[in-house]
């Protein structure tokens, strides 16, 4: 993996362990020479993530829609800042720039980004590893809900397993580097990807 997109909150929340984990993830990506792609904010978990990478001489690409530049207070010290016209183009650009996907804690926007990437993988639109950094029990209820989806027959186990989960940065990155994607669905042709 040469680049990873990280989806996370523009708020810091109220758990210092999550804030520190975001900083450490940025630092670790930088130390491994992995470019960080993220939502371009200098505030919240996003800001800590970017600062961790920048403090360790990492390459950081921020992608933000024009209308959010003021609301999310974009980071002016990035390696590259890409401005899009809307949220959908932002997500597509972030996806196109990355070889893997990691999700940290966040709110609705973070969940929407995670589930869209998982859905695209389920449909065979990409075969990138998707990681969930499980910090301090933040995702307990979400993971319980996903297991309920499997047990009630709404989600196949193989699609549940698309989501790589670990509570350590090192463990998650190792799982992502060793990820073996599912074969493309028979109804998807290679040229459709």
From TrEMBL:
EC number: 3.2.2.n1
Catalytic activity: AMP + H2O = D-ribose 5-phosphate + adenine
Pfam families xrefs: Lysine_decarbox (PF03641)
Gene3D superfamilies: 3.40.50.450
Keyword terms, alphabetized: Cytokinin biosynthesis, Hydrolase
Residues making up the signal peptide according to the UniProt record: none
Enzyme class of the recorded protein, top EC level: hydrolase
Family under the similarity heading: Belongs to the LOG family.
Record's protein name: Cytokinin riboside 5'-monophosphate phosphoribohydrolase
Lineage: Bacteria, Pseudomonadati, Bacteroidota, Flavobacteriia, Flavobacteriales
